[in-house]
Amino acid sequence: MKKLTMIEVQQRAVNILMYIDKICRKNELKYTIFYGSLIGVERHKGFIPWDDDIDIVMPRPDYNKLIDLLKTDENYTLLAFETRTHYRYPFAKLIDPNTIAKTKQYFGGEDPDLGVFVDIFPIDGIPDTEKEREKLREITEQYRLNLMDTFKWCYARSFYFSKALIKLIMRYPYHRKLLKEGNDRYWRDKYQEMAKSIPFGETKTCGYMEWIHINWGVFPTEWFHEFEDVEFEGHKVMAIKDRKKFLKLRYGNYMEMPPEKERVTHHPYDFYEK
C-alpha cells in the first residue's frame, strides 16, 4: 500500500467535504465547518497547514437527516451508531473507501473501514442553567466512557505497548463488571437517549454533549440560525455567521500562529491508499 502524504490526505478530505456539501445543499440541510477547521477558514482560507482532518457540526435534526441520506451511499462509507453494530464514537465519520487508516494506538478499537475522513458532530439542545448542564454532562459522559470501556479491548488503549498491557490486566475486572450490566450497545443506547433528551431549539443553549461542561462548549442556539458561504481550499462551504464569536471564545487570538513546536497534527493515524 502507498502511504499518503499530508497534501494527499487533505485533498481527499476536501473531496469528502464537498460531497457532504452537495448533499446538504440539495436537501436544504445546514452544517458549519467548525473547531480547528474554522480557524483554517479565517486564517488560511483552507487547512491549517499541519492539520489533516476536517470537522463539521450540525443541529441534531439536520444531522439525523444527513445520516439517513448517507446510510446507503455507494460512494463513501458512513461510520456511525446508525450504521455499525459496534462503534466507539458518539459522532459520525464519512470515509473515503479507497483509503485505509493505521492507528498508532494499541487496542484503539478503530473500525476496520476507517480511512481518510470528515468528522460530523451533532449539536443538541442543552439546559440553560450551569447546574443542570453539569448534571446532564456527568450522566452522558459516564455512559460514553462505559461504552468505550466495554468495546472490545478499548479500555486498554495507549500509544505505548507497556502501558496498554498494564491497563489490559489491571482494568480487566472493571471491564467485566461493566459487561455484566450491559455491553457497548447497551451504553450506546443509554447515551443516545440522554443526548437527545432536549430537542435542539427548545432551549437558548446548545452544544456537542462531550464538551458542555466547558464554557467554550456551550453555544447560544441563535448562532445556528444564520449561515453563509466561506472559502475553504478554493471551494465554497457553509459556516455560521457568528463564527468569530466562537473562535474568540474557544481559541482567544485565533489569528496568531502557535509556536513552531506546536505545529503538528494530533491524530494517531497514518493513511494509505488501498
TrEMBL record:
<dbReference type="GO" id="GO:0009100">
    <property type="term" value="P:glycoprotein metabolic process"/>
</dbReference>
<dbReference type="Pfam" id="PF04991">
    <property type="entry name" value="LicD"/>
</dbReference>
<feature type="domain" description="LicD/FKTN/FKRP nucleotidyltransferase">
    <location>
        <begin position="24"/>
        <end position="252"/>
    </location>
</feature>
<dbReference type="InterPro" id="IPR007074">
    <property type="entry name" value="LicD/FKTN/FKRP_NTP_transf"/>
</dbReference>
<dbReference type="InterPro" id="IPR052942">
    <property type="entry name" value="LPS_cholinephosphotransferase"/>
</dbReference>
<protein>
    <submittedName>
        <fullName>LicD family protein</fullName>
    </submittedName>
</protein>
